[in-house]
Design goal:
204 residues; 75% helix; S-adenosyl-L-methionine
């Protein structure tokens, strides 16, 4: 059961009307919305591939933009934490090292996902027509689905614990929600892309 009193106490430390907090929420929500809208537009029109001369060049450009946006998001997240109070009783070594361990695991998932998928596999290459030969099932995909997203969420969770930040914990929840929505939005569409690929192979 959820301890409602503890939740109220925890989020009593967070000023959700603070400008920095609002900017962080908007940056978190914007990123997956941006890359999904742009990638679907590219899949429908091939406009970016035409502008950049090839699907691969267009995918690399979108990937670079996503990386920059993620850096902006992380900066906004950190600034929002710094502008709000720490949680009393959490600013100790055990909290810091627990957060550090969680962030390390998240980083492992993110890096290993990138190595398993490659740049185009990570940054929506299938929407550009750059399809993988088969589904990746090696680590970390052998442990959980969408390890890139959940690894990133774990990094933010660990970062929040390291700073004993209720604001960070609330923003981490926003990250988790935004990724959950992104998975629900991306999953069926990506599966349909590969379903069409299989139909094309069988028809030859």
């Amino acid at each position: 059961q959820v301890d409602v009193a503890a939740m109220v106490r925890l989020f009593g430390y967070v000023d959700v009307t603070d400008t920095g907090f609002i900017v962080a929420v908007l940056s978190i929500a914007f990123n997956p919305l941006f890359w999904n809208v742009v990638a679907r537009w590219e899949h429908k029109t091939r406009a970016l591939s035409q502008v950049f001369g090839s699907p691969r060049a267009a995918c690399y450009c979108l990937g670079a933009v996503i990386l920059v946006l993620n850096c902006v998001r992380s900066h906004c997240f950190t600034e929002a934490m710094k502008s709000q109070p720490k949680l009393e009783g959490w600013d100790f070594h055990w909290t810091y090292y627990s957060g550090l361990a969680i962030s390390a695991v998240g980083t492992l998932f993110v890096i290993s996902s990138f190595l398993a998928l490659g740049f185009t596999g990570t940054f929506l290459g299938d929407y550009f027509g750059i399809l993988m030969e088969e589904k990746v099932t090696s680590f970390p995909f052998s442990i959980l689905d969408n390890p890139m997203y959940w690894g990133s969420t774990a990094i933010y969770l660990g970062w929040s614990l390291m700073h004993a930040s209720p604001a960070g914990l609330l923003l981490t929840a926003v990250v988790a929600i935004s990724y959950t929505i992104a998975v629900l939005y991306e999953g069926p569409f990506t599966e349909e892309i590969y379903r069409q690929k299989q139909k094309g192979v069988k028809s030859k």
